[in-house]
Design a protein that fits this description.
With 228 residues, this protein is an alpha/beta fold. It folds into two domains: 152 residues, Alpha/beta knot, CATH 3.40.1280.10; 52 residues, tRNA(m1g37)methyltransferase, domain 2 (Trp Operon Repressor, Chain A). Strand 5, helix 4 and strand 6 form a beta-alpha-beta unit. Helix 3 packs parallel to helix 5. It binds adenine. Adenine binds next to strand 5.
Length: 228
Amino acid sequence: MRFDVLTLFPEMFPGYMSQSLLNKAIEGQLVDVQVHNLRDWATDKHQKIDDRPFGGGPGMILMVEPVVNSVRAVQKMAQPKGKIVMMTPSGRRLDQKFVEELAVEPRLILLCGRYEGFDQRVTDILHPIEVSIGDYILNGGEVAAMVMIDSLVRMVPGVLGDEQSSWDDSFSRGNRMLEYPQYTRPREFEGLEVPEILLSGNHGEIERWRKAKSLENTRLRRSDLIEE
Ligand code: ADE
């Protein structure tokens, strides 16, 4: 799966991309992330990519021409040309179902906004898939793009290894249950002991216990998931 990120802050990405799982996926050529500086498509000598809104109001708006030109140029850099995704708080809220829908795409072009957003004509011309990572306002789309990449990379076959597949995770395939509690050594810490059942070696019993805990956790913390 290939991601092309269009941003005014490309320097935000290398640290994130050096994280072990993503880095391994990139080195194994399962995932490719190319980061492009929107400013490279500025049309004037001052490299201006934003301007004040017509009609007045606070902040600056990303200009239509550099943004549209950058997307078209980046699409031509590889095949297939990919679907365009705009990171915006007015988009469809990202959840595991949406992640699974996007995970089948071989290539996504991620547009990260700053300032007060994009000129409306960017949307009217490019018809991007608009994605929000939640009902709060970030300073820009970069962190949202990283969240999206992070959730998608886990779905790429081979990235997580055989024994662990994200398609079986607690939020996948219609399964909307929270995880059961997990423990590792030591068996006792500050008087708190690992539940006896987990030390029993009885796999059937352990499986039943985990299902029950998972259901209990979901009921207590996220009853909305059960109603869904
Ligand atoms: N840009 C600013 N806030 C955002 C959000 N919540 N989701 C996606 N992109 C954003």
